Amino acid sequence: MADAGVAETLLRRIEKADGGVDSLDVASSLGLDHQVVVGAVKSLQALGDLISAEQRSSKHWELSEEGTEIAEQGSHEARVFGSIPLDGLAQSELMKLSFGKIGFSKAMSNKWIRLDKTHEGGPRIFRTVESIQDQEKNCFGVILVSVFRTVKSYWITKGPSFSTTITKQETELTPDMIANGSWKEKKFKPYNFEAMGVAPDCGHLHPLMKVRTQFRQIFLEMGFSEMPTNNFIESSFWNFDSLFQPQQHPARDAHDTFFLSDPALAHEFPQDYLERVKKVHSEGGFGSQGYKYDWKIEEAQKNILRTHTTAVSARMLYKLAQQEKFTPVKYFSIDRVFRNETLDATHLAEFHQIEGVVADYGLTLGDLIGILYQFFTKLGITKLRFKPAYNPYTEPSMEVFSYHEGLQKWVEVGNSGVFRPEMLLPMGLPEDVSVIAWGLSLERPTMIKYGINNIRELVGHKVNLQMVYDSPMCRLES
Ligand code: FB9
After folding, report:
1. Tens-digit pLDDT profile for residues 31-49
2. Which part of the chain is CATH 3.30.930.10?
């Protein structure tokens, strides 16, 4: 019987009943599961005040699972008797049956069967009578396997708006109804303010963006300001020359750097600053002997995809140096950089670089080590080691290592250093100002946090978008 049919039948039963009806009785008389009738009660209640239904408990005896089995299939001993053919049955075979063990002893004590232990081929069971009366199934025994259950049901009576017909409830008031006045004859489904809204389909943040937010939060709470990194294209001048990286440095070759063909060259540079950069590269100055090579503007003009966000740091430090009075700053950036490198499971031709920069009077390597401890501690990394390294634009430079408990080994977690005077002084920064900086990638911590081994599962055209939808919130310090 369809649900609507059950509801209408229920209404008719209530109509005829003297007072009310019990949902259990209705279910039993219709041969339906009680839950079907309960469902009909709920649907009628949702239509308004057609019925009143109050829950009540009643106690009664009910066959347990075993009782139902005996009532349907007979007692265990009767089923043992029924399973023994005229030529007998091996005792071992009987014991394999679900009712064998329980029924055997009762059937023996009823003298319905006998056991021949001397039978060739092993102990065998034979019938001793033609037929039996299954007392347990027919009366007393079944009661032993019944249980006294408390059953919840509904006592259903007519509601204030009782009717034996269910009028369709409108779920929206249309302009036509208002225009032609038909709304007056219609019944409207009441709002269910308890109903949960449908979760709107929405966008999902990529794990990299979740981790970037965590790093951004760490920098902000350390008092850093974010640098404007919205230029993937950079001139070689800002990406290399301003950082005192010589024009013949291998990193400036096409096998490490992506060069643009159009527009191939940049033309706007601060001319006086450019002259000081040219001089410090070719002749030295500011206490440096320089690289003593013929520095060419054409090389500096070449447009590239920036190979590091340190190009942005250079622009920001130059801008800082133009202030009338120097003021200490703390800058950070997190954005994409591009390197024409050999690809492997953890390296693509681009990655997100994270960079921190602090400019102040008299900063030392000790300040750099201190801020690295502060920064990495916020990532949950406390065991650090520093290894001397080389960068064209920092001296001294240090690779940063952390002990990875899981891998039981020291892993590189970043690079750092003190920007060289040959970079800072041509910008015009005061001689007693020093600038410390460090960098790391966004992909490495993200892959570790989300348990991703191949970077192509994290970024690129083969990424499974479900991974993005399912990726949980990121908490870096945990
Ligand atoms: O991120 C790196 N490793 C890393 C970082 C965090 C981390 O977090 C764990 C969850 C807790 C785990 C690992 N590295 C730097 C080290 C290696 O992965 C390295 O193989 C790859 N490096 C990239 C560059 O490789 C071509 C990571 C990237 C990198 C390296 C150096 C800098 C920035 C990014 C820099 C710098 C710098 C130095 C001085 C002054 C200014 C900037």
Report:
1. 999 999 999 999 899 888 8
2. 208-470
Supply the pLDDT for residue 257: 96
Task: Measure CA 224 to chain center.
Answer: 30
Specify the ligand 1 atom closest to the Cα of 357.
41
Mean pLDDT of the chain: 92
Task: Decide: residue 23, CB within 10 A, 0-12 exposed, 13-18 middle, 19+ buried.
Answer: buried
Ligand 1 site, residue 391, Cβ cutoff 6 A: yes
Q: Find the 439 Cα to ligand 1 centroid distance in Å.
A: 6
What percent of the chain has pLDDT above 70? 97
CA-397 nearest atom, ligand 1: 39
Q: Does 412 sit in the ligand 1 pocket, CB within 6 Å?
A: yes
Say yes or no: CB of residue 443 within 6 Å of ligand 1. Answer: no
Please state the atom number of ligand 1 nearest to the C-alpha of residue 339: 26
Give me the CATH topology for the region 65-141: Arc Repressor Mutant, subunit A (1.10.10)
Name the residue among 234, 249, 211, 196 with its Cα closest to residue 392: 249
Distance 61 CA to ligand 1 centre (A): 73
What does the pLDDT average to over 253-260? 93
3-59+147-184 CATH fold: Ribosomal Protein S8; Chain: A, domain 1 (3.30.1370)
- Token digits for 314? 């250079």
Q: Is residue 381 in contact with ligand 1, taking CB distance under 6 Å?
A: yes
Asked whether residue 121 carries a pLDDT value surpassing 80, the answer given is yes
| Span 268-305, pLDDT tens digits | 999 999 999 999 999 999 999 999 999 999 999 999 99
Band of pLDDT at residue 83, cut at 50, 70 and 90: very high
- Is the CB–ligand 1 distance for residue 75 below 6 Å? no
Q: Is 355 in the pocket of ligand 1 (CB under 6 A)?
A: yes
Ligand 1 pocket member 251 (CB < 6 A): no
pTM of the prediction? 0.66
Write the residue with the smallest CA distance to atom 17 of ligand 1: 412
Edge to edge, the sheet with strand 113-116 lists 89-90, 124-127, 113-116
For position 66, what pLDDT does the model report? 75
The domain made up of 208-470 has a fold known as BirA Bifunctional Protein; domain 2 (3.30.930)
What does the block give as tokens for 208?
């990299």
**For the chain, where do the domains classified as CATH 1.10.10.2330 start and end?**
65-141
CB 437 within 8 A of CB 313: yes
CB atoms inside a 10 Å sphere around CB 302: 19
